[in-house]
Amino acid sequence: MSKSLEEPLSRPAGADIEKVLTDEKIAVFFQPVVSVRGKSILGFEAFSRSIGGEGARLDAQDLFAQPWSPAVRLRLCRLCRRKALEAFRPIAERHPHMQIFLNVDAIGITAAENPGHLAAICKAMGLDGRRVIIELERPGLSSQEVYRFVQFYRERGFKLSIDAMDGLSAPTEELFSLKPDYIKLDRASYTDVEGKEFKREMVTGLCRMAERLGSVVVAKNVETEEEATRLLEWGVNIQQGYCYTKDKDCQEKDPIRAFLIKVEEINRRFRERAQAEVAGKRKRFEDFHKILRKVGSKLGETILHDFPAVTDRYANAEESLLCVYVLDDNGVQITPRAFKKSLVGETPMLGPERGKGEDMSIREDVLHLKSGFDKYVSQPFISIHARVPACTISARFYNRENVPCILCLEFLSA
Length: 414
What we know:
The chain is of the alpha/beta class.
């Protein structure tokens, strides 16, 4: 999408709509939908724009924002769809695997006597329905007409995309009902993130839900490389937006190749950054495992009675440790949790014994260790006691009295 697409547009007057429908002066613009990790273009979303009688530029989104009747909306939607498919046909002929994201007005669907119009247009143009992704926006998703429309086209190989995010919420019930191939989220979900960790959790949570549905999350309106990288870190690989359009100083004449150059550059920079982060993470975990061996070795020379003194000493001596405690072989905590005193003071939720006697036999790490694993590394979490990022590494050992135990070390992970 070029910069001109983002310039202010005139609001359509009521009399303009018939002229738009009669003159069919619809211009179509394409925006690439890319796989950054795969360094490829999946296809294009089609955007429509009309020229009014006095030269006013009318954006299709503005047109559909007007309170037209469902019948008028249906006529307008069909016009925009036909123009988009006509513009896409030459691209499809040159690039057989490209797909088109085609916006369909959910309210207009309710005015259709039958859902076969789009299929007939595609057939007349020689376009395989499997290359057409019907994109619906949130309003009207729950209507029976929309559901029947989706079923009709799914049976004919068409795919479904739902422009789902309205602000910071998603229509969970509709997503589980329709099970779209693609779920799109907008800028509000991944920008203005300073001090708003919940946005990352919201996006990663949507990605997990999409996996359960067999869907792919697509980020819309990506404008900068920083935003593209953030989305990759959050697990959103498929993206679209001004960031991926052709630079003004790009000498490449083939527009698709120009788009790919931008994708490849962002892929390269993210890969370099990710490799550096992985190397740093590997170094941290090598250090963590050295500490695990050190503490385990010391406890291996110690009788049960003296465990608390050892755990307390290491919790405060090792810079990267937050907490140290020991379980018996059945997963029952046999030492109080020893916290780094500079980070954790009182722990009323653990009681006076700081968790001693608590049964953790069904905890994930205990179950893995009991099944034969030598050690277990947890997913990162926020410590409820210190309110800092942490992870737990657990391992089995035998003490001086040859008693089997489980050592649990909570490390500061950031």
